Each structure stands twice: as C-alpha cells, then as structure tokens.
TrEMBL record:
It holds the Pfam family Redoxin. Its main location: other. One of its GO terms (molecular function) is disulfide oxidoreductase activity. It comes from Devosia riboflavina. Keywords: Cytochrome c-type biogenesis, Disulfide bond, Redox-active center. Coiled coil: none annotated. Residues 34-174 form the Thioredoxin domain. This is Thioredoxin domain-containing protein. Belongs to the thioredoxin family. DsbE subfamily. InterPro entries: Periplasmic_diS_OxRdtase_DsbE, Redoxin, Thioredoxin-like_sf, Thioredoxin_domain, Thioredoxin_ResA/DsbE_sf. It comes from the Bacteria. It is found in: Cell envelope. SUPFAM superfamilies: Thioredoxin-like. One of its GO terms (cellular component) is outer membrane-bounded periplasmic space.
C-alpha cells in the first residue's frame, strides 16, 4: 500500500510530462474553433449608430462567401491590420462584414473615418454577446463564412500579408466551391 501511495505522484508526473511533450511543437497561434464547418450562430446586430452601412444578421451571411472581421477602435492590432483588410477587399472583391466589438459608436465612426471603411456591413456588438457566441477570444479575429452560412475558417489575432496570402485567400477560394 505504501508503494502505491509513493508511486501515484510519480505516475501522475510522468503522465503530465507525456502530455506536455506531445504538444511541444504545436503552433501556439493555432486556436481551434468548435464552429468550423458549423452554421454561424443565430444573431442580429444593429448598425453602428451614425454609420452609412447596415448592420447584419445570420441570414445575410448566406448566398456568397463572406469575411467577418471582429474589430474595435481601442484595439491597436486592429489598426495595424486595417490597411490589409482594405487591400483584401480591393484585390478579391469579397463581401467584408465587421463586428464592432464592445465599442462606443462615436469611437467606431472616428476609427473608420480616419482609416477608411472597407466593410459592406457593420454590426454593433456593444454587449459582446454575439462575439461570445462566435467564440471570439479577443480582437481582432477573422472568419470566412461560406455561401451556405457555415464558418469554414478562423484566424485569431491580426492578419498579416503572409496570413492573407497563405491562409485567408485559400480559405475564401475553398468557400467559393
């Protein structure tokens, strides 16, 4: 009995080391989403007050592939990725919808007035409820939704030119099939 009590912590330690060793080469930026290949959550987001683009809902994601970008005016990485979103829109013509995460309308308007507005629709998610339903960990995050309304891709963190070329555009092409 004493041997068992002595061996239990040792076995537990060996098990933990095995778990950590098996994930040591895992990409730390990879955050899996349980929503991949599932329909986008049911939601309705009103437009950001004072903006000349509409809000959107689940139904408006159907029909053609859409890139959904979660952003906020107070998010420094969002500011960094914004020119890349404008370039993506210009290059591909993709529908680009924004979820304005936990932001005051006047701040969102100022952000887009300063940097430009690449979005076809922007929903105000002031209480973060929709972001939570989408599994958003933080801003920015970007999703590809196929024409049937299923989420087919998720990118956590700011987009880079490399990520757009190697991940996002191929995901969009796949969503168009």
């Amino acid at each position: 009995m004493k041997k068992l009590l002595f061996a239990a912590p040792l076995l537990l330690l060996v098990g933990l080391i095995a778990v950590f060793a098996s994930t040591i080469n895992r990409d730390p930026s990879l955050v899996r989403s349980v929503l991949i290949d599932k329909p986008a959550p049911e939601f309705t987001l009103a437009a950001v007050e004072g903006m000349d683009v509409p809000g959107f809902d689940t139904a408006s994601l159907k029909g053609e592939p859409t890139v959904v970008n979660v952003f906020a005016s107070w998010c420094i990485p969002c500011r960094d990725e914004h020119p890349l979103l404008e370039a993506l829109k210009a290059k591909t013509g993709v529908r680009l919808f924004g979820i304005n995460h936990s932001d005051a309308p006047e701040n969102a308007r100022a952000f887009l007035a300063e940097l430009g507005n690449p979005y076809d629709a922007i929903g105000a998610d002031r209480d973060r409820r929709v972001s939570i339903d989408w599994g958003v960990y933080g801003v920015p995050e970007t999703f590809v939704v196929d024409g049937s309304g299923k989420i087919s891709f998720k990118h956590v963190g700011p987009l880079t030119a490399e990520a757009i070329e190697s991940e996002l555009i191929p995901a969009l092409e796949k969503a168009r099939l």
